[in-house]
Amino acid sequence: MAKVKLITRFFEIEDANLLPIYEANGGYAAARKVVTESWPPDKIFSTVKAANLRGLGGAGFPAGMKWSFVPKDAEGPKYLVVNADESEPGTFKDRHIMLKAPHLLLEGAIIAACSINAEDIYIYVRGEYYQPTQSLERAIEEAEDAGFLGKNIFGSHKNIKVHLHRGAGAYICGEETALLSSLEGFKGWPKLKPPFPAVKGLFSKPTIINNVETLSYVPIVIDKGPEYFAKLGVERNGGARLFGISGHVKKPGVYELSLGTPMRELIFDHAGGVRGDRKLKAVIPGGSSCPVLTADEIDVNLDFDSLAKIGSMLGSGGMIIMDETTDMVKVLLRICRFYAFESCGQCTPCREGTGWMTRIMERVASGEGTSQDLDDLYDVAGMIGGNTICPLGDAASLPVLSFVKKFRAEFEAKVSAAKVPAASGKKSAGEEI
Amino acid sequence: MSVSFPDKEKKRVEEIIEHYPQKKAAIGDVLYLAQKQFGHISPEVELYVASLLDLPASYVHQIVTFYTMYLENPVGKHLMLLCNNVSCMLCGAEDMLAKVEKKLGIGPGETTKDNKFTLWTVECLGACEMAPCLMIDDKLYGNLTVEKLDKLLDSVE
Ligand SMILES: Cc1cc2nc3c(=O)[nH]c(=O)nc-3n(C[C@H](O)[C@H](O)[C@H](O)COP(=O)(O)O)c2cc1C
Ligand code: SF4
Ligand code: FES
């Protein structure tokens, strides 16, 4: 278990973003095989299922299984949508793929489209990603010219067209139902499920949404075989993934490691350890919505199930490292502000709750908070999770719950016990009379 | 002055619409096109975009206000997006903000007197490995220090 070079292989080859170089390095062999050998959908998704490829956008849903949810008898168009909105704080891996290996993504998307018989692929790229968008535009043009996209791809009877759609600055559009609304020309408001997009998605047609990285592993799974891929990882967590590591670390960047690699190995061996050789204080393991880990909790393996077991998440693989000098109150305030700003406002618990949490945290951070505030914060956070249309509510509350619980002493130190409102009647910890 | 696209942009609108089974879905890119052409999305521009896509102007307005990258108001010649999310904050985003404030005399949301720069503080730009980072127009700059930022600001025309 360690460093692998599946996607990152292409990062190291000069100009692998260009079609001739990508092809010379084995590119498009998998898509050509699937298309020219007319693989039936079942064969594609059972291969991907056997590889145990998990969705790498955050939720970790098995990729092959998701594709099999598209009703076989559905008439009319079906769509594949690529989620390239990458906006979860701490996450930057998809940007690297789009810049350096755009054809790998396109190839994976072609294969996924074949598995659901989709003729149109929409790639939803976040608006701020100008260079990645240009890189994709160029790759799409090259692939069209080569006959890998467009009509009769690879000389077959299949037609697949790729459309690029630029987002315009709204984190919530990364959530799949919001993304579809946004693609249709609406505000990016999430919708209740069911109906699931696989049944009724984009323009009310069956739609599969996958993350950039998930799709980029698909050609590799086909090339190397599902057994090889599955074995690289651990049980139910096949293969590898890109970990983005940033914050107080010596060598921030993207590292591709097999799933199940110890977190300590990533932080200290690959990323060089904590900046300035200071002590590690905390780690946010997979994007800012994942519960924070203390330095004592990092002896965990990097796979979806292991992180779930200790009450956190592997999420998007965007890891943020914090050293001993970090003010956890300030970090949590920053996270609270983010979710309050990005809440779409449809659900009362999320809209009001994120605002309350931010205001309480502003008080606490400025030294005007009370112990009661900490209890309230905890209560409010507890009331949001599970009571909303989309998981942004949970994303906003999980950091609060984990920061306050795990770094309570630091939060306590910030609040002045003397200021407990008389009306509350509650005595707070640390209060002295 | 009545608002209207030159022929080339009009053709581009048709091409954008081609990508979707429903005209409304083209609104995002048409707004970007309009923003490029007219600088920002004024009420007149909203009305014009609405007419191109057979939508009510109020609908276009909703979209413009929902997304942060559509400019309702004019900005300076260069729009600077300074990331202040967690990774950048840990790596010195506050020093970058202080530098910009001191050097250009503007805070978040403000424009320099000579109309050269508008500053926004923004959420994670998806480039945390280069923290602290910022964008000026469509270019990303990372691994900033106060000195590098100073030089960068000087180098912008
Ligand atoms: C608030 C919110 C933001 C999200 N942002 C992203 C994102 O930027 N990119 C992404 O791939 N998935 C994001 N997701 C997850 C998507 O909803 C969806 O699960 C994912 O795109 C599915 O692809 P996968 O199965 O390949 O991971 C987000 C989810 C939520 C709730
Ligand atoms: S949970 Fe928040 S972001 Fe999600 S739909 Fe409800 S209000 Fe909108
Ligand atoms: S936090 Fe600044 S780019 Fe991610």
From TrEMBL, chain A:
NCBIfam families: nuoF_fam, PRK13596.1
Family membership noted in the UniProt record: Belongs to the complex I 51 kDa subunit family.
Pfam families (alphabetical): Complex1_51K, NADH_4Fe-4S, SLBB_2
Reaction(s) the record says it catalyses: a quinone + NADH + 5 H(+)(in) = a quinol + NAD(+) + 4 H(+)(out)
Keywords assigned by UniProt, alphabetized: 4Fe-4S, Flavoprotein, FMN, Iron, Iron-sulfur, Metal-binding, NAD, Quinone, Translocase
Protein's job: NDH-1 shuttles electrons from NADH, via FMN and iron-sulfur (Fe-S) centers, to quinones in the respiratory chain.
Domain NADH-ubiquinone oxidoreductase 51kDa subunit iron-sulphur binding: 329-374
Top-level EC class: translocase
Protein name: NADH-quinone oxidoreductase subunit F
GO BP, one annotated term: cellular respiration
Domain of life, source organism: Bacteria
Reported cofactor(s): FMN; [4Fe-4S] cluster
GO MF terms held by the record: 4 iron, 4 sulfur cluster binding; FMN binding; metal ion binding; NAD binding; NADH dehydrogenase (ubiquinone) activity; NADH dehydrogenase activity; quinone binding
Keyword Metal-binding carried by entry: yes
Enzyme Commission number, as recorded: 7.1.1.-
UniProtKB/TrEMBL annotation, chain B:
InterPro entries listed in its UniProt record: NuoE-like, NuoE_dom, NuoE_N, Thioredoxin-like_sf
The protein's required cofactors: [2Fe-2S] cluster
Record flagged with keyword Iron-sulfur: yes
Keyword annotations of the record: 2Fe-2S, Iron, Iron-sulfur, Metal-binding
Co-factor binding comment: Binds 1 [2Fe-2S] cluster.
One example GO MF annotation: 2 iron, 2 sulfur cluster binding
Pfam family, one: 2Fe-2S_thioredx
Amino-acid positions noted as binding [2Fe-2S] cluster in the UniProt annotation, renumbered to this chain: C83, C88, C124, C128
Keyword Isomerase listed: no
Family: Belongs to the complex I 24 kDa subunit family.
This protein's name: NADH-quinone oxidoreductase subunit E
Organism of provenance: Candidatus Glassbacteria bacterium RIFCSPLOWO2_12_FULL_58_11
